[in-house]
């Protein structure tokens, strides 16, 4: 890595900038310029300065990427390898990612404002764990033997769906890449990946490492660009067989429309969230405060499952509020490359301004701002950890996904009230419960309409645990063997059996 002046960006003294090696599109195993020759800027949220100019994919480039992916699927080695061989290559891919952990964490740190030390110990290791999990699943794709009636025998085959379009968000560029790509590779699919325009750099590096690992040309294609051009070209393409998307509910709607208007491609959506964290009177208050701080302010609140609605039972409410404010004020906002920082900047100027606007909505609608609520630095997109009380369910800050470090603190009396409040949102991605009562934990877990429920913990993810949403948080599952389903077709084969000793 280099310091001041790297890439001629004129960075402020002391701001560490990683070396950026890959800025072109990756199509059919090669880095290439966009057909149009256009590029776009990706900026460093620590300063707002340009980090790199990246080739901008448009429909013509997506057409080339899909053509390469189709050729690799129809005539290439990848779908025809044994699952064992695919798994070996995927494990080599994981080994290469591990070897470049520091460099990759730095790319996401500079491109997305993510904490560098957490990238090294959390994001990149979690991504390679995901890749190895599906490498192990690649030779375990099984059909069923069917007891069909009559003089027949039947069985099912699970076959790769074909060319998968993958559109990933900017908040976890590394983890989201492997969350989608890993099961697709294990299933024998080929992929066209559009990373978020805010954070394209690590995805291009992963394409390079995949080729080094032996993934055949055309199997992984990466086309950085914008949603309304490159993303729309993928979702409307007649030769893309499925689309997996993580992002906003609004864009999820557009993807479903596009899929329906084109070839009715299969769609899986992991969308917005407004997750409740419900804290009962019997909870350890200090533990609950620390959990709530993590649930809301981790990754500067840019987390789809952020526990941004914190419900506290009345018996401990006052104590909790006091300690929550102290905890928020001790959360250090600073350069994500500084190991003492707890929180970096929002990903870009647009998100920075959006969060500040929601904070103004909260104040204007009558919520009480206890701490934070302002930019935390003169330069860059830093925002103070923010806590509101006196929040009602009809306020924007209680209903809409802010995707920033803003906590809405609310009080409840009974278990029934907590369940009702937890469910009074259009979203259903995740929920947290803090209690020492097994009965309360079981009752609330089964009553909250969310795809993941954490009891006395938060952000406890594992490759084996399916993840996805209820309601307007989407459908389909990432992680676990269930994630393979969206990359596989099920075919029934029934054969006449006129002379069997038994039926």
UniProtKB/TrEMBL annotation:
The keyword Magnesium does not apply. The active site is at residue 270. It holds the Pfam family Aldedh. Residues 32-493 form the Aldehyde dehydrogenase domain. Keywords: NAD, Oxidoreductase. It catalyses: octanal + NADP(+) + H2O = octanoate + NADPH + 2 H(+). GO terms for molecular function: aldehyde dehydrogenase [NAD(P)+] activity. The keyword Repeat does not apply. InterPro entries: Ald_DH/histidinol_DH, Ald_DH_C, Ald_DH_CS_CYS, Ald_DH_CS_GLU, Ald_DH_N, Aldehyde_DH_dom. Homotetramer. Belongs to the aldehyde dehydrogenase family. This is Aldehyde dehydrogenase 1.
């Amino acid at each position: 890595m280099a310091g001041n002046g790297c890439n001629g960006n004129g960075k402020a003294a002391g701001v560490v900038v990683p070396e950026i090696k890959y800025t072109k599109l990756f199509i059919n195993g090669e880095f290439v310029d966009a057909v149009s020759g256009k590029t776009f800027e990706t900026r460093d949220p620590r300063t707002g300065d340009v980090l790199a100019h990246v080739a901008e994919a448009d429909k013509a480039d997506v057409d080339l990427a899909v053509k390469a992916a189709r050729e690799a699927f129809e005539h290439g080695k990848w779908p025809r390898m044994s699952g064992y061989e695919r798994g070996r290559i995927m494990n080599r891919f994981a080994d290469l990612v591990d070897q470049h952990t520091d460099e990759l964490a730095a790319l996401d740190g500079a491109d997305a404002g993510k904490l560098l030390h957490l990238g090294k110990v959390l994001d990149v290791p979690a991504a390679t764990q995901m890749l190895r999990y599906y490498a192990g699943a690649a030779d375990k794709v099984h059909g069923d033997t069917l007891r069909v009636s009559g003089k027949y025998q039947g069985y099912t085959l699970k076959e790769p769906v074909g060319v998968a379009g993958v559109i990933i968000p900017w908040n976890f560029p590394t983890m989201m890449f492997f969350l989608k790509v890993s099961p697709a590779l294990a299933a024998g699919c080929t992929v066209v990946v559009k990373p978020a325009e805010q954070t394209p750099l690590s995805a291009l590096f992963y394409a390079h490492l995949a080729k080094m690992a032996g993934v055949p040309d055309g199997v992984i294609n990466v086309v950085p660009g914008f949603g309304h051009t490159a993303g729309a070209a993928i979702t409307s393409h007649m030769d893309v067989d499925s689309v997996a998307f993580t992002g906003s509910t609004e864009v999820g709607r557009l993807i479903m429309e596009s899929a329906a208007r084109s070839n009715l491609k299969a769609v899986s959506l992991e969308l917005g969230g407004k997750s409740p964290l419900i804290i009962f009177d019997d909870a350890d208050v200090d533990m609950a405060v620390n959990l709530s701080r993590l649930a809301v302010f981790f990754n500067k609140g840019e987390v789809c499952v952020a526990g941004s609605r914190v419900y506290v039972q009345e018996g401990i409410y006052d104590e909790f509020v006091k300690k929550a404010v102290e905890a928020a004020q001790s959360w250090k906002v600073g350069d994500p490359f500084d190991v003492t920082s707890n929180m970096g900047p929002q990903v870009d100027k647009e998100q920075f301004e959006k969060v500040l606007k929601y904070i103004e909505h909260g104040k204007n609608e009558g919520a009480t701002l206890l701490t934070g609520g302002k930019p935390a630095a003169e330069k860059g997109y830093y925002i103070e950890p923010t806590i509101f009380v006196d929040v009602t369910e009809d306020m924007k800050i209680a209903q809409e996904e802010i995707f920033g470090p803003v906590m809405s603190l609310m009080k409840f009396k009974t278990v029934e009230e907590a369940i009702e409040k937890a469910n009074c949102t259009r979203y259903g991605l995740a929920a947290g419960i803090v209690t020492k009562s097994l009965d309360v934990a079981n009752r609330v877990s089964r009553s909250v309409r969310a795809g993941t429920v954490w009891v006395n913990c938060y952000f406890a993810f594992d490759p084996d645990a399916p993840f996805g949403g209820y309601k307007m948080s989407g459908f389909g599952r990432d992680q676990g063997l269930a994630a393979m389903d969206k990359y596989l077709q099920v075919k029934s084969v029934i054969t006449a059996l006129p002379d069997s000793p038994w039926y």
